[in-house]
Design a protein that fits this description.
The chain has 419 residues and is of the alpha/beta class. It folds into two domains: 6-38 and 295-415, Aspartate Aminotransferase, domain 1, CATH 3.90.1150; 45-280, Type I PLP-dependent aspartate aminotransferase-like (Major domain) (Aspartate Aminotransferase, domain 2), CATH 3.40.640.10. It contains 13 helices and 15 strands. The strands form four sheets. The chain has a seven-stranded mixed sheet with strand order 4-10-9-8-7-5-6, with helices on both faces. Strands 11-12-15-14 form a four-stranded antiparallel sheet, with helices on one face. The chain has a two-stranded antiparallel sheet with strand order 1-2. Strand 5 (115-119), helix 5 (124-137) and strand 6 (140-144) form a beta-alpha-beta unit. It is globular, with a radius of gyration of 22 Å.
Length: 419
């Protein structure tokens, strides 16, 4: 696995706002990408353009026609990016809001009785929604245990607890705590082997910025991402739903279109800024592929991102130059294990002699932005079984550099040294 050559990395970094400087802190290294990735400069420009427009969609005037055309183009772009030849895309308030809405629709629209199944590795958004609406619908909830050592939940673990009366299933694509990805296609196949008519929802929020999304290969019914975690901005989420999901009873205006997921006037800027994201992946893929096919270029971008990020996480774990890696620090626990092929751009660790919050604070004083994950409602499902009350999350994206990793390791060498 190789990192991007320096000229290409410089070109990549130039496309993002605040890549190495915080307007409130000054110079800093950004390793808090799982909390929200950097924003493309094109997204900032597009947001300003559409925020200034007073016109509504659906009117008979040139501005309204242009807005509808941008939304239609964005949905077409989304279909290429997610590789979703069927179904439909729509935007909502946030990834969490869309997660609740899709799971609510699936659980309440499914046949009476039966089971809702998910896993212990999931983000609280999908776990909470599944439990809440299972209770409301009089369905039982089954939690598939994840493996504490690897941080993953396997297709076999789902298969072991599957029953023919499973109505709805939820899957986490990648953990925002450990950075470990799960085999979505394999889990979906395990679900359908026993309950072929189950409605399957996938949380792709953490996965989206790091690599390949291929809805056509998953055999699922819903997929949600948060665009602020994939180089766009806050204030909206993107959902894909299958035609089968859309055929369920939906909330809609009386007398309005029955197959419509959108409620109220959409923010055209949301759609337009996601087109900026897709255009960026297309451009990055064109640096690695001569294919005339846009989807092929996006797949090339995903492969290049994976290789670059793996080179960085390998250096972060095993060291570079004369700097020891995080895995070599005394008293360290690396969540998901040190050598885990499913890791996506994230290293989460704890030291037995230094509180995680102190490490994060001292790194921040060095101009290195990371984040503490506590054993709370967000991360307790991962940390508590490991006997940890907190851990340090170092999350990167493909615009980060080996020099930034080296700065982190140099700081950690000093921070972890005995007093």
């Amino acid at each position: 696995m190789t990192a991007f050559p320096a000229p290409l990395l410089a070109n990549i970094r130039d496309r993002f706002a605040h890549v190495d400087t915080c307007p409130f802190q000054g110079p800093r290294i950004f390793f808090e990408n799982a909390g929200g990735a950097l924003t493309l400069k094109s997204v900032v420009d597009t947001s300003a353009i559409f925020a200034a427009l007073p016109d509504n969609q659906g009117r008979d005037n040139p501005a309204a026609h242009a807005l509808m055309a941008r939304i239609a183009q964005a949905k077409s772009d989304m279909a290429v990016f997610f590789n979703a030849p069927g179904g439909q895309f729509f935007v909502g308030e946030s990834g969490t809001e869309l997660t609740f809405r899709l799971i609510r629709t699936a659980v309440m629209g499914a046949a009476d009785g039966g089971v809702v199944i998910g896993s212990t590795v999931e983000h609280p958004a999908s776990r909470s929604a599944a439990r809440q609406w299972a209770d409301q619908a009089g369905k039982s909830y089954v939690a598939v245990p994840h493996d504490d050592a690897t941080g993953a939940v396997t297709p076999q673990a789902y298969a072991d607890l599957m029953t023919p009366d499973v109505r709805v299933a939820t899957i986490l694509h990648t953990s925002p705590v450990t950075g470990i990805a799960n085999d979505v296609a394999g889990i979906s196949a395990a679900i359908r082997a026993t309950a072929p008519d189950a409605l399957i929802f996938v949380d792709g929020i953490q996965h989206a910025s790091h690599g390949h999304i291929d809805i056509a290969s998953y055999d699922i019914d819903g997929y949600v991402v948060s665009p602020y975690k994939v180089f766009s901005r806050h204030g909206y989420g993107v959902a894909w739903v299958s035609d089968r999901m859309t055929a369920l009873p939906l909330e809609h205006l009386q007398g309005g279109p029955e197959a419509n997921w959108e409620m109220g006037t959409r923010d055209t800027g949301s759609y337009a800024t996601f087109s900026d994201v897709v255009a960026y992946f297309d451009w990055l893929g064109s640096q690695h592929s001569d294919s005339p096919d846009r989807r092929s270029r996006i797949e090339a971008a995903a492969a290049a991102i994976h290789d670059h990020e793996k080179s960085l996480t390998d250096a972060m774990l095993h060291g570079t130059g004369n700097l020891p890696g995080i895995a070599e620090l005394p008293g360290v626990t690396v969540l998901g294990g040190v050598d885990n092929s499913a890791r996506e751009g994230l290293v989460c660790f704890a030291l037995d002699h230094l509180p995680a919050a102190d490490i994060v604070a001292r790194l921040n004083a060095c101009g290195i932005r990371t984040h503490v994950r506590k054993a709370d409602h967000y991360s307790g499902n991962i940390l508590t079984p490991l006997g940890l009350d907190a851990a340090v999350r170092v999350s990167l994206c493909h615009y980060n550099s080996l020099a930034e990793v080296s700065a982190l390791l140099a700081a950690m060498k000093d921070i972890s040294a005995p007093a």
